[in-house]
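This section describes the prediction task in plain terms. A model, or a person checking by hand, is given the sequence of a single protein chain and must write out its three-dimensional structure as a string of tokens. No templates, partner chains or ligands are provided. The sample shown here is typical of the held-out split.
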Amino acid sequence: MSSNYYEYNLATMRDTKGGFLEEEPKHESPQKKRRVIDINDIPYNPDPEECPLCVECGSLDLVMIYLKMFKVYVCKACVEAVPDKYSLLTKTEAKDDYLLTDSELRDRALFPVWEKPNPHKSTWNNMLLYMRMHLDKFAIEKWGSLENLDKEFERRVDEKQFCRRTRVEEWEKRRREKLKLQAEHEHQFESTAGTSDGEATEQKCVVCGIAVEVEELF
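The expected answer:
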């Protein structure tokens, strides 16, 4: 008879219909644990009178990521209902729409930002998301008003189109002058090279560059 004695904690065992097996400890993935810590890191007050509410409709159902990243109290319904304030723009969109510089967008005192992994490729730089409400506020401080921003945007578009039109017109002018020169000028040929047998030479016009082969007759 065996003298070995094994002690089991029956509270941690489960019936598998094939004998009792000890429950293995559960290990949460670091990603899941980190998400839980992020959500729990947001303060919560059980008192309804002191609990933060949506600034638009007074709802308790706030978007936690907006509260954590942007310190904005808003619910999901109002985010979708008021995109002019709560929609998110990428860094490229913010630069193009509001004519901002990289140094301005890097200033975290001016713009809180939500930095998340790039959805297109994990090895690329993280994607930066800015809230339109914050961009509007800074654009008004920088340009005086959103109307002035629109005027500056139109001015830059017109200037860009003018520069492109000027380059095209200059190219067309030079092309017309060259074609006109080729059509109206009198060729001035000079000998440039001879053939291998020495019986013919190549002559090239010094004005338009046309080349002809001339044979000498004796």
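For orientation: Confidence is low (pLDDT under 50) at residues 30-39.
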